[in-house]
Every structure is written in C-alpha cells, then in structure tokens.
Recover the amino acids of this structure.
C-alpha cells in the first residue's frame, strides 16, 4: 500500500487534484503512516457517474455471472489475506494473528453466501390471481447504492455492504471511515480483477464527504453502519430524495446472567465477547445484569478474566485485543471512567496503558445504577459493567431500559426462562448461553435507536432488491 492513498473509481486509482488530504494514524504507535484524500463534490460525482455507467450492464448480468464474480473475489481475498490483514492491522492496531483467524474466514464465508444467494431469490409463483390475467413478481436491483462504513471493522463492514448489493445486481460507491480507509481501498483494487470498471468504487473522505454522498441525487439506496448520531443525519439527508435507507447503528447489549448459570463459564465467554476488538463492537457484551446469588462469584471470575487479558499491538501473537482506534475514542472511554458516580467502583483496569498508542486496560465496573451514564450510553471500549437484579421482571425491565435495541444475551440453565426472556427482550438478536457469534445465514440488525434493516442473510440480501408486479392479459 502506497503511503498516499487514492480513491478507486471506475476500475482504477484516481488522481484528482484534491484540495486536502488527511493523515492516517497507526493507533498502536500514535504515528502517521499514510495520507488519504478528503474528497468533495467533484470526486463524489465522478464516482457516481462511474457507478451509473456500470449499472447499465451489471444489472443485466445473470445471477450465475454475478455469483461467479463474487466467488472469485472470495478466493482472491482468501489468497491475499496476509496482505489485507497487514494493511488492516496498521490502520486499526488490531493484532495480526487474531485478525487473520477471526475476521478473514467469516468475511470470505459471507461473500460466498451472497454469491449463492444471487441465484436463490424467491417470490410468489406466477399464476392467475385474477381470471384472464397472469401475474408474476420480478426482483430487481435497486440501482446505484451508497454505503458508509465505520472504523471498528473496516474490511468486514465493507463486505457486509458490497456483497449483497453487487450480488443483487446493484453498483456501489462506498466511503470508509476517515480514520481507516486503507484496507477498503486495497480490497477494491483486488476486486477489480473480477468486476467490470465502476461496479464498486471507493471514495475517501470525512463527515462532509459522507453528507455529499448521502444527499447526492444518483444513489437510490444508502446503507450505513455507524453511530446513532450518524444514522439520524443520514436519514435526514436521504429524506428529500426519498432514498431507501438501511441503518445499522449503536448498541448497549444487556447480558442477563441468572442465578442458575455457571458463573465461571459465563465470565470466561462474556470477557471474550466484551473485550474482543477492545470492546469496539456495537454487539459487545459490556452491560452485565446478574442475579443476587450469583453476583459476587461472577464478578470475581470476571475480574480474573480481565486481568488475564493480553493487550498488544499488531505483532503480539497472543494478544486478545489491540488499541482503541483513535485519540478521540481514547478520550471518550477515559471520560466515562473519570465521570463515574460514587456508587460505581472500578474493580480492575480503568486507565490508559503503554507508553505510546491508544491502549486501554480491560476494565470491570461494579455498582452502577440503571440511570448512570455508563449504563445508558455506549462506551465502545474494553469496559464491562455489572449490576445486580432482584428478579426476572426487573432483569428484563433494566435490559430493555436503554435507547438501543441491537443485541442481547441470556445465561441460564432453565430452558423455559430462556424462551420467556428471549421473547421479552426488545433486541434484534438474543443469544442464549453465548454472546457474539454471527453466521451469514442469520440476520443482524436492531430495533429502536439501533436502526432498521438487516445485514447478512436473505433478509439483508432482499434489502438490496425492489419488487415489481407484472400482469399480462391472456387474451
């Protein structure tokens, strides 16, 4: 990867005379390693022009042709995994070994899933629903799509956007986060070997670039993974053009541990699901609610798990997680700890670690009240809070008592309780005796302020299609 990134538009790196470039920081060192363009109207319009031209032919390709292209892309990403992960790790600070083992395989699998989905769209069977007329359903691509991806999983979130969009016959302009565009640009370069020019375009830039993309007249659909604030802005910007909007936003996942759960086993799994990727995951297991009897034993086990976490940069082979993504995020996570009320106690961690970079200690906070900021708002860092509840009703009430509705989990050996609570939890995903596994066949998306629309699965695939009814007279 060159030190100076370029946009990838129309099947090639583009060398516009950008007015501005932004520095890219390696979060593990805090040092600049590259620059990226800060695109504006001219660059965005060029990208949409390329996508529009490509759509005229791409939409007419057969499902088999699109499927084959995606399968080839999946093979290429698998073959170039070391190169992609090296770029991703420098741009995010993630441990190389962990990223290779935990991100590349699901990414490749998700691309292959959508390659198969391209050939498996379903609808009502053609028939004479009115005498003398035959009706049938056409599933068509939406058109040119726009996407904005976050900095916590740059490679994977890009896949979640472009794979279903391209499989359905759409073309796309994608803007990665301003702090982590490097792996997305490289991915586009690798993909171009198997796609016609303009089918997939990457435009780098900041929030203003994102606003230009969302409000541009060309795209018929906008998909974003980001914060609640960003989602609201995107929805507002897309409204004048009545664009279809797909929002996967923040989360504050409740993890409900009942008294009949195994506290040591639960603590081990919850630590993995809470600290992975430095807690920078909108489904992270960071808000634990425990029964009265299990609380103390669970907290002791969780603190031990936290103390055993290895925090390290890209080259630390046994690292459990790396740094926070940027200086602002370090300040945000630190601020939550600094503002804790007197009732809340930091049992371990709670501060920056290391002599450079944005590393933060794995942290356990006990005793926070339901109304406290750290319970109600997304920290997005390696911080797990623990509260104790009196009964099942209180557990469910507290679990649902945030503005978010993305993911949750229930830990119990009582099957009936697991079924009752999973029905009552107001979240798009409920895990039982586990937390955070995702599979391509199942949807990912939330309720309430966590947004709407689904990633992954056939539900996500169908979001990138439109339904047309065709009726023909038989006479």
């Amino acid at each position: 990867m060159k030190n100076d990134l370029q946009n990838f538009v129309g099947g090639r790196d583009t060398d516009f005379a950008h007015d501005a470039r932004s520095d890219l920081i390696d979060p593990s060192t805090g040092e600049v390693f590259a620059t990226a363009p800060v695109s504006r109207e001219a660059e965005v319009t060029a990208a949409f022009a390329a996508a529009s031209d490509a759509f005229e032919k791409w939409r007419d390709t057969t499902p088999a042709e699109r499927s084959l292209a995606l399968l080839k892309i999946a093979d290429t990403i698998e073959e170039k995994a070391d190169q992609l992960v090296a770029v991703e790790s420098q741009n995010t600070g993630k441990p190389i070994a962990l990223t290779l083992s935990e991100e590349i395989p699901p990414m490749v699998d998700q691309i292959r899933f959508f390659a198969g989905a391209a050939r498996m769209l379903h609808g009502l069977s053609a028939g004479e629903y009115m005498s003398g007329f035959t009706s049938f359903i056409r599933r068509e691509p939406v058109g040119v799509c726009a996407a904005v991806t976050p900095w916590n999983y740059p490679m994977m979130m890009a896949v979640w956007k472009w794979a279903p969009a391209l499989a359905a016959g759409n073309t796309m302009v994608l803007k990665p986060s301003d702090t982590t565009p490097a792996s997305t640009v490289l991915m586009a370069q690798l993909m171009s070997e198997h796609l016609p020019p303009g089918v997939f375009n990457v435009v780098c830039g900041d929030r203003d670039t994102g606003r230009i993309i969302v409000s541009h007249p060309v795209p018929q659909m906008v998909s974003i993974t980001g914060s609640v604030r960003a989602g609201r802005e995107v929805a507002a910007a897309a409204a004048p053009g009545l664009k279809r909007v797909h929002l996967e936003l923040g989360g504050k996942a409740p993890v409900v541990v009942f008294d009949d759960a195994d506290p040591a086993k639960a603590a081990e799994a919850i630590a993995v699901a809470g600290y992975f990727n430095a807690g920078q995951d909108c489904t992270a297991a960071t808000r634990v609610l425990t029964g009265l009897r299990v609380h103390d034993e669970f907290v002791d086990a969780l603190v031990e798990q936290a103390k055993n976490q290895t925090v390290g940069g890209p080259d630390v082979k046994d690292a459990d997680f790396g740094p926070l993504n940027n200086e602002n995020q370090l300040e945000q996570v630190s601020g939550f700890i600094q503002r804790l009320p007197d009732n809340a106690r930091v049992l371990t961690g709670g501060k920056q670690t290391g002599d450079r970079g944005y590393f933060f200690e794995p942290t356990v906070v006990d005793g926070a009240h339901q109304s406290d900021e750290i319970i109600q708002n997304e920290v997005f860092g390696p911080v797990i809070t623990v509260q104790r509840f009196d009964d099942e009703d209180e557990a469910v009430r507290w679990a649902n008592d945030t503005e978010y509705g993305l993911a949750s989990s229930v830990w119990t050996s009582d099957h009936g309780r697991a079924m009752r609570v999973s029905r009552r939890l107001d979240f798009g995903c409920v895990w039982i005796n586990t937390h955070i596994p995702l599979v391509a066949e199942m949807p990912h998306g939330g309720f309430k302020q966590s947004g709407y629309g689904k990633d992954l699965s056939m539900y996500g695939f169908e979001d990138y299609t439109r339904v047309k009814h065709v009726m023909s007279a038989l006479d």
In short: The two ends are 63 Å apart (CA to CA).
